[in-house]
Design brief:
The protein is of the alpha/beta class and 341 residues long. It contains 14 helices and seven strands. It has two domains: 174 residues, Rossmann fold (3-Layer(aba) Sandwich), CATH 3.40.50; 115 residues, no CATH class. The radius of gyration is 25 Å and the shape is elongated. Bound molecules: adenosine-5'-triphosphate (ATP) and magnesium ion.
Length: 341
């Protein structure tokens, strides 16, 4: 007989997690082949160490070492790039190398990194920093006392580097200008803690350095992550290098020749040379090919992927993988790369 309390408990309105069929999330069994979606996802999760990425990671690393060296005025770094250039990936990948950990007497946060809220004020950014450091009273009190707590906690947690992403939000919220107050606030934290900052965001972030010469002096290192190009020999070599890396990691039975001469320009025009679109294009083509049981990628799968993930419902003249395509970057109003270049 069941115990009384079990009999009296009301029936659940919602299925328990264990009630879901085992394949609810389409997770593969140990002996099952990965699904097309899983193949695409595994492709999209990989991190490619292309030259601009490696250069940016090295610059962040240098900045971090500056912080450890305890200079009075550490060099800070500004990383800008258009949307999808790979800025946040750099932040997350770098920070993942230095996770927080617990010492017997304190939490250590070697690298503090966060995205700014869409309508940042000093108060809500300070609050987000405190939350990120695990302060249970993050939402209490004024901007000034939050700032004072940030400074104390950064010292307590032995923080060596701070990375703030989406910094353009500060620029946006002041109608194309950065508030002097924000620039001063940053300077105040850098001076008090001597921790170097890496700021990241869209190209208009540069404005932060226009309004405050003291900050400009500290942010003397700048990196622009540009999309891949094919104009110069060097650019084309780097783009082909990336395509070779991508083709070697496409999870299909036979090699896909993404770097063959007939595909270089179409892939470039289909993605404007942006890593985000490159990964989406090849990932989606992989999924479509795997659904058909195809052995490798070809122009047709890339063409379908372009229509699926970059410009749905496009005509042949707008599809770089079709013969009728007029060779140009699709950056006019209403086109996928409008506002990019
Ligand atoms: N080094 C890389 N290797 C592989 N894929 C990458 C790399 N960098 C970026 N990507 C791909 O591009 C996508 C967009 O990158 P990310 O979010 O870093 O761009 P972003 O510059 O921060 O864009 P936004 O300004 O819109 O925030 C990632 O989700 C990932 O798929
Ligand atoms: Mg980002």
């Amino acid at each position: 007989m069941k115990p009384e309390h079990a009999l009296s408990s009301p029936p659940s309105l919602f299925p328990q997690v264990t009630d879901f069929p085992r394949n609810f999330l389409d997770l593969p069994q140990a002996d099952e082949k990965p699904s097309p979606l899983e193949l695409a996802a595994s492709f999209r999760k990989q991190i490619v160490n292309y030259p601009a990425y490696a250069h940016a990671i090295r610059a962040v690393e240098r900045c971090h070492k500056m912080g450890k060296a305890g200079l009075d005025e550490p060099d800070c770094l500004l990383i800008t790039g258009v949307s999808g250039a790979g800025k946040s990936t750099i932040r997350k990948q770098y920070a993942a190398r230095f996770p927080r950990y617990e010492d017997p007497d304190r939490t250590r946060i070697p690298v503090l990194h966060l995205q700014l809220p869409s309508q940042p004020t000093i108060k809500n950014v300070a609050e987000r920093m405190l939350l990120e450091m695990g302060d249970p009273f993050a939402d209490r009190s004024t901007a000034e006392s939050k700032t004072a707590r940030i400074i104390t906690l950064l010292r307590e947690c032995r923080t060596e580097l701070i990375i703030l992403d989406e910094f353009q939000h500060f620029v946006d919220s002041a109608r194309g200008k950065v508030d002097y107050v924000v620039a001063d606030w940053l300077k105040q934290i850098i001076n008090a803690t001597r921790i170097p900052f890496v700021l990241m965001g869209l190209p208009r972030c540069e404005q932060i350095l226009v309004v405050n010469e003291q900050l400009r002096r500290r942010f003397n290192r700048k990196i622009i992550i540009r999309p891949f190009g094919i104009k110069t020999k060097r650019e084309a070599e780097q783009f082909i290098g990336l395509l070779k890396t991508l083709e070697s990691t496409v999870p299909l039975p036979k090699p896909s020749c993404l770097s063959s001469s007939n595909l270089i320009k179409p892939i470039y025009y289909a993605t404007a040379g942006l890593i985000d679109f490159l990964i989406k294009l090849v990932g989606t083509a992989t999924e479509l090919a795997a659904e058909d049981g195809a052995q490798c990628l070809d122009t047709d799968y890339l063409s379908k992927a372009f229509e699926t993930v970059i410009l749905p419902g496009c005509s042949d003249e707008m599809n770089p993988f079709c013969e009728d395509f007029v060779q140009r970057i699709l950056n006019r109003e209403g086109e996928p790369f409008h506002g990019y270049r």
